[in-house]
Amino acid sequence: MFFFYLDRLTRESEILPLRTALAAARQVVPDISVATLATFLELAAKARDEPVTTREMSTACAIPYPRLMRHIEVLAEGSRRSPGHGLLEKVMNTVDRRAEIKLSLKGHRLLAAMAAPLCAIAEGGRRVR
Predict the structure, then answer these.
(1) CA-to-CA distance for 107 and 127, rounded, in angstroms?
(2) Burial of residue 40, with CB atoms counted within 10 A of its CB: 0-12 exposed, 13-18 middle, 19 or more buried
(3) Sheet strand arrangement including 99-103
(4) Domain 7-124 class?
(5) In which region does residue 86 sit, left (phi positive, over 0), alpha (psi from -120 to 50) or beta (all else)?
(6) Domain limits of the chain?
């Protein structure tokens, strides 16, 4: 509960980059949850250039495998009940036939949309809305 002792301006300036990135993400995918977005960012860090297996991601994200699979389902093609966001693609490894995850074009766009305001803030301290 230490944050109650910080003055309002300090909190606002420290939270601004996160709020800006979240706002950018909500413009691309309006109904994404913060937990699913956090999983997307972990996946993006690992699978930005080449696909990764779901087991590798479960270990890297430190979340249970079933929960990771639910997030991947939402981030990829979705289920019968609800459509997915199309941010990830499931691909088959041709060597060992395991399913792997990679960023889709829409996923790369979301990552760029989130990175742009953060880079602007880091470069010049400018406020981006």
Answers:
(1) 25
(2) buried
(3) 52-53, 99-103, 88-92
(4) mainly alpha
(5) left
(6) 7-124
> Whose CA is closest to 38, among 25, 27, 28?
25
CA–CA–CA angle 108, 111, 112 (5° rounding)? 85
Q: Which two tokens stand for residue 58?
A: 């479960």
Per-residue pLDDT tens digits of the chain, which is 129 residues long: 455 555 555 566 667 777 888 888 999 899 888 889 989 998 888 877 788 888 888 888 888 989 999 999 999 998 888 889 999 998 888 888 888 899 999 999 999 988 887 776 666 654 445
- Report the alpha-carbon distance of residue 91 to residue 98 in Å, rounded: 8
Per-residue b or e along 28-38, where b marks 16 or more CB atoms closer than 10 Å to that residue's CB: bbeebeeebbe
DSSP letters for 57-71: HHHHHTS-HHHHHHH
